[in-house]
């Protein structure tokens, strides 16, 4: 069963509702996080909830108090008998609420969804995935907004494409719900925070890569570098580290997920226990 916490109560997800008066519905005002469990313990809850607060602040949503309740909601939700065994994904949503004052939102709503964790097809880690480059920037890159329309529209109906890859003016920023890394000229290159969301997985992978002695550059990789790149991968809390073997019409490297991608994924998996809440 999927569960939803709202306003002090847990209900089955299909019974939960957002009033039509909420600015999430009326104007797309809302921010969220996806937090998965390992052994039923939340992964990096502190960093995720800090980012949720920063997303809310930048969206003009006054959410400090409501977000401070979430750790207790996670604890209670994970102990609920309605959730069967297995790993869980917990998604806190902070909506704009019904009140807008000077384009700020002083009275937000909090929903926390608890769902069985669904992982990408394991075969994708062997074959790698395809991204579709789109010549646009994700608006307000520091906000993890509920609005994914910009990333979805360019690949609507494309079963062969995993996500859009935002490449404004030939500079690669991030994918629609992942950070992007390129291995080129013996370096690991990824866009700087500010051009992209500060992915929790991105931060951990960068730390592990530096610790392991990789040369790292935080700048936007260029589309013109793709032809000579050896490897590419994306990162995200659910997918962890996932190889990218095609971008639009281009094959990356030899068309298989490469050794750097696989090595960093192994290092990531080995460090997971340090981040469990
Ligand atoms: C969620 C998301 C990410 C990945 O963030 P993690 O904290 O690593 O899960 C990257 N970019 C965008 C646009 C996202 O929405």
Protein architecture, described:
- The structure is a single chain.
- The protein has 277 residues and is of the alpha+beta class.
- The chain folds into 2 domains: 3-116, D-amino Acid Aminotransferase, Chain A, domain 1, CATH 3.30.470; 124-275, Alpha-Beta Barrel (D-amino Acid Aminotransferase, Chain A, domain 2).
- Helix content is 24%, strand content 27%.
- The chain has 8 helices and 16 strands.
- It has helices spanning 23-27, 45-58, 64-68, 70-78, 123-127, 149-152, 200-211, 259-271; strands at 3-6, 9-12, 30-32, 35-38, 41-42, 88-95, 109-116, 129-134, 163-166, 174-175, 178-184, 187-190, 215-218, 231-236, 240-247, 250-251.
- The strands form 2 sheets. Strands 8, 9, 10, 11, 12, 13, 14, 15 and 16 form a 9-stranded mixed sheet that branches. Strands 1, 2, 3, 4, 5, 6 and 7 form a 7-stranded antiparallel sheet that branches.
- Helix 7 packs across helix 8 (259-271).
- The protein starts with a strand and ends in a 6-residue tail after the last helix.
- The model has no long low-confidence stretch (mean pLDDT 97).
- GO terms for molecular function: transaminase activity.
- Keywords: Aminotransferase, Pyridoxal phosphate, Transferase.
- One of its GO terms (biological process) is carboxylic acid biosynthetic process.
């Amino acid at each position: 069963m999927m569960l939803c916490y709202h306003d002090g109560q847990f209900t089955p997800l299909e019974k939960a509702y957002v009033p039509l008066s909420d600015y999430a519905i009326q104007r797309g005002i809302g921010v969220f996080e996806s937090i998965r469990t390992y052994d039923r313990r939340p992964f990096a809850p502190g960093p995720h909830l800090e980012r949720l607060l920063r997303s809310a602040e930048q969206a003009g949503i006054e959410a400090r108090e409501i977000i401070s309740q979430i750790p207790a909601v996670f604890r209670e939700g994970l102990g609920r008998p309605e959730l069967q065994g297995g790993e869980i994904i917990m998604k806190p949503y902070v909506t704009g609420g019904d009140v807008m004052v000077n384009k700020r939102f002083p009275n937000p709503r909090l929903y926390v969804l608890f769902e069985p964790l669904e992982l990408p097809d394991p075969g994708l880690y062997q074959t790698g995935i395809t991204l579709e480059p789109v010549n646009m920037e994700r608006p307000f890159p520091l906000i993890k907004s509920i609005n994914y329309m910009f990333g979805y529209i360019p690949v609507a109906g494309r079963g062969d494409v995993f996500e859009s890859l935002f490449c404004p003016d030939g500079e690669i920023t991030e994918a629609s719900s992942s950070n992007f890394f390129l291995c080129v000229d013996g370096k690991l290159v990824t866009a700087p925070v500010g051009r992209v969301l500060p992915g929790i997985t991105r931060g951990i992978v960068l730390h592990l890569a530096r610790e392991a002695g990789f040369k790292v550059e935080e700048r936007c990789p260029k589309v013109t570098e793709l032809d000579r790149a050896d490897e590419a991968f994306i990162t995200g809390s659910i997918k962890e580290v996932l190889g990218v073997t095609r971008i639009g019409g281009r094959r990356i490297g030899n068309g298989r997920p490469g050794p750097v991608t696989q090595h960093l994924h192994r290092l990531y998996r080995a460090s997971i226990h340090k981040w469990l809440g």
